C-alpha cells in the first residue's frame, strides 16, 4: 500500500505540514496534483497567469521529485474521478492534504473525504497556509473577531516560537514512491495559452526592502512592497518562515501578514461572503447604476482620472497593482460610478497574479463599506487628493501613462463632487431601509 499527498495551495516540498506527516507515515508517498476541471471551467479567458504559474511551479516540483527517484502524478478531471481511477490502480491507505478554508474547497474536501471513506481510505488534513486558522483566534466568549486591531493583538499574544517551527522533511525524501517520470500536461492540453508579457516576481525575502517597508509601502512609484502575494497564494513560500523573518525585521510588514490571516478567518466563520453576499446584509440594499460603458472605461484605464487609469493599466499590463492604488480604483468604481463591487472583484480575480478569494473579497468589501472593519460609507476617496499625497511628482502616473499631459488628458467620465453626492445619497437611502 501507499499514501497520497495531494498538492493544492502548497506547491513546495520544504516545510510543508501535510507532506511531512505523509512522509513519516511509514508508507511510500505518491505526490499528486489535479488540474481540477470544476475550477478550470470557471476561467473566462484561455490566458490565465495563475494557471501558468501553477504549471511552471509543477515543473520545478517534478525536477525536485526526480532527484528523489519519484515523480509528480497529475490529473486533469474532477478530483472525484481522479481518486476513483487512482484507487483502481493502487492500494491506498490514506490521502494527506493541507487545509483550504474557502467554501468551495471545504465542500470539495468533504465530498472527497466521504468518497474515500467508502473505500476505507483516510483523508487527513493539516494546517499549513496560515499560522492560525478556524477557532485558533477568537474572543473570550469564543465568537470570531470582526475588527482587525483586537484580532491582531490576540494573534500576537498567541504566537509562541513552536508555531513557527519548520516541518523539516529533507531526510524523509527517500520515502517518496519510486517510479519514473510522469508527464505533466502542457498548457495547451489544458485549454490555456501563455499570457504575453507577464513575468512572475521572484520568491525572495528582501531584508533591506522590508526594513524600509513602513516608510515606503504607501507610495506606488516606489518598489517598496514584497511582491510575495502570488507565492503566498500558492504556497511556494512557507508562511512560518516568512512570519519568523517579518517578526525579526518589521512589525508593519508582519501586520500585513496578519491581515491575510484575518480575512482567511472571516471566510471560515462567515461563509455567506463566499456566495456573493455582502458581509453586512443591509449593504445588499444598495441600488447600483451598473453602467456597462463606464465599467469598460474603468477596466481599460480610461476614466479621465489619471491615478485610477494608471492603476488599471498597471494591472492589465503586469497582473499587479499597488495596494494604495487598489484602494483608489476600487473606491472609484464603487462610489464614483456606483457599480456593484462584485463586478470589480471579478475583474481583479481574473487579472491579479496574487488573486486570493479571501483577501480580494476583503479588499472589495472594505472599499464598498459592506465588509467587516470596512471604511465608513461616507468616506469617499478623492482621486486628486490621493495623487497629491501619494504620487506628488506624478511618477507612478507617468510610468503607466507614458504620454500623460495634465493639460490635455481624457475628460473625466464623472465630476468628483456630484459623484460624491450621488454616492452619499444612494448609500444613505439603502441603509435607511
Ligand atoms: P506586501 O505589502 O509586501 O504584503 C505582504 C503580503 O501580506 C501580501 O503579499 C499579502 O499576502 C498580505 N497582505 C498585504 N496586505 C493585505 C491586505 N490588505 N489583505 C490581505 N492580505 C494582505 N491581496 C491578495 O493577496 N490577493 C488579492 O486578491 C487581493 N485583492 C485586493 C483587492 C483590493 C480591492 C484591495 C484594496 C486589496 C487587495 N489585496 C489582495 C491586498 C493587497 O493589496 C495585496 O496583498 C498587496 O498589494 C500585494 O502586494 P505585495 O505582495 O507586494 O504585498
Overview of the molecule:
The protein is an alpha/beta fold and 433 residues long. The chain has 3 domains: 2-129, 3-Layer(aba) Sandwich (Rossmann fold), CATH 3.40.50.620; 130-164 and 207-269, Alpha Horseshoe (Serine Threonine Protein Phosphatase 5, Tetratricopeptide repeat), CATH 1.25.40; 275-432, Orthogonal Bundle (DNA Cyclobutane Dipyrimidine Photolyase, subunit A, domain 3). It is built from 19 helices and 5 strands. It has helices spanning 17-23, 37-40, 49-67, 79-89, 103-118, 148-158, 207-211, 213-216, 229-233, 239-249, 251-269, 292-299, 306-318, 323-336, 341-351, 357-367, 383-390, 395-400, 416-432, and strands at 2-7, 28-36, 73-77, 92-98, 122-126. A 5-stranded parallel sheet has the order 3-2-1-4-5, sandwiched between helices. Helix 6 packs across helix 11, helix 11 (251-269) crosses helix 16 and helix 13 (306-318) packs across helix 14. The longest helix has 19 residues, at 49-67. The protein is globular, with a radius of gyration of 23 Å. Bound molecules: flavin-adenine dinucleotide. GO terms for molecular function: deoxyribodipyrimidine photo-lyase activity; DNA binding; FAD binding. It holds the Pfam family DNA_photolyase.
Unreliable segments (pLDDT under 50, ≥5 consecutive)? none
The CATH class name of the largest domain reads Mainly Alpha
Can you tell me the number of structural domains?
A: 3
Query: Tell me about the biggest sheet?
Result: 5 strands, parallel
How helix-rich are the residues, as a percent range? Answer: 40-55%
User: In CATH terms, what is the architecture of the largest domain?
Assistant: Orthogonal Bundle
Amino acid at each position: 500500500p501507499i499514501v497520497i499527498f495531494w498538492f493544492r495551495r502548497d506547491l513546495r516540498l520544504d516545510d510543508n505540514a501535510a507532506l511531512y506527516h505523509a512522509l513519516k507515515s511509514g508508507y511510500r508517498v505518491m505526490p499528486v496534483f489535479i488540474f481540477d476541471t470544476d475550477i478550470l471551467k470557471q476561467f473566462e479567458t484561455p490566458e490565465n497567469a495563475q494557471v501558468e504559474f501553477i504549471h511552471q511551479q509543477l515543473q520545478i516540483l517534478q525536477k525536485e521529485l526526480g532527484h528523489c527517484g519519484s515523480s509528480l502524478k497529475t490529473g486533469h478531471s474532477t478530483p472525484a474521478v481522479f481518486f476513483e481511477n487512482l484507487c483502481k490502480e493502487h492500494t491506498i491507505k490514506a490521502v494527506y492534504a493541507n487545509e483550504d478554508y474557502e467554501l468551495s474547497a471545504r465542500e470539495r474536501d468533504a465530498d472527497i473525504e466521504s468518497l474515500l471513506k467508502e473505500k476505507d481510505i483516510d483523508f487527513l488534513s493539516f494546517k499549513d497556509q496560515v499560522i492560525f486558522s478556524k477557532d485558533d483566534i477568537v474572543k473570550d466568549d469564543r465568537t470570531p473577531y470582526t475588527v482587525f486591531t483586537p484580532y491582531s493583538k490576540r494573534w500576537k499574544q498567541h504566537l509562541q516560537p513552536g508555531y513557527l517551527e519548520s516541518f523539516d522533511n529533507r531526510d524523509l525524501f527517500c520515502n517518496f514512491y519510486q517510479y519514473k517520470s510522469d508527464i505533466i500536461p502542457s498548457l495547451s492540453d489544458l485549454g490555456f495559452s501563455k499570457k504575453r508579457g507577464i513575468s512572475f516576481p521572484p520568491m525572495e525575502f528582501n531584508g533591506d526592502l522590508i526594513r524600509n517597508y513602513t516608510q515606503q509601502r504607501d507610495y506606488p512609484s516606489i518598489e517598496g512592497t514584497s511582491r510575495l502575494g502570488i507565492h503566498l497564494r500558492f504556497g511556494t513560500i512557507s508562511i512560518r518562515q516568512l512570519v519568523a523573518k517579518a517578526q525579526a525585521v518589521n512589525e508593519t510588514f508582519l501586520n500585513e501578514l496578519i491581515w491575510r490571516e484575518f480575512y482567511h478567518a472571516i471566510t471560515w466563520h462567515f461563509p455567506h461572503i463566499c456566495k456573493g453576499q455582502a458581509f453586512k446584509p443591509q449593504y445588499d440594499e444598495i441600488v447600483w447604476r451598473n453602467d456597462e460603458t463606464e465599467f469598460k472605461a474603468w477596466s481599460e484605464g480610461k476614466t479621465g482620472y489619471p491615478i485610477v487609469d494608471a492603476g488599471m493599466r498597471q494591472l492589465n499590463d503586469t497582473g499587479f497593482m499597488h495596494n494604495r492604488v487598489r484602494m483608489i480604483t476600487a473606491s472609484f468604481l464603487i462610489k464614483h460610478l456606483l457599480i456593484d463591487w462584485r463586478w470589480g472583484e471579478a475583474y481583479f480575480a481574473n487579472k491579479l497574479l496574487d488573486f486570493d478569494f479571501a483577501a480580494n473579497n476583503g479588499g472589495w468589501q472594505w472599499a464598498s463599506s459592506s465588509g467587516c472593519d470596512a471604511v465608513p460609507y461616507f468616506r469617499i476617496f478623492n482621486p486628486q487628493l490621493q495623487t497629491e499625497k501619494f504620487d506628488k511628482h506624478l511618477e507612478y502616473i507617468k510610468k503607466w501613462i507614458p504620454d500623460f499631459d495634465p493639460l490635455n488628458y481624457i475628460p473625466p467620465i464623472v465630476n468628483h463632487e456630484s459623484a460624491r453626492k450621488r454616492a452619499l445619497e444612494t448609500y444613505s437611502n439603502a441603509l435607511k431601509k
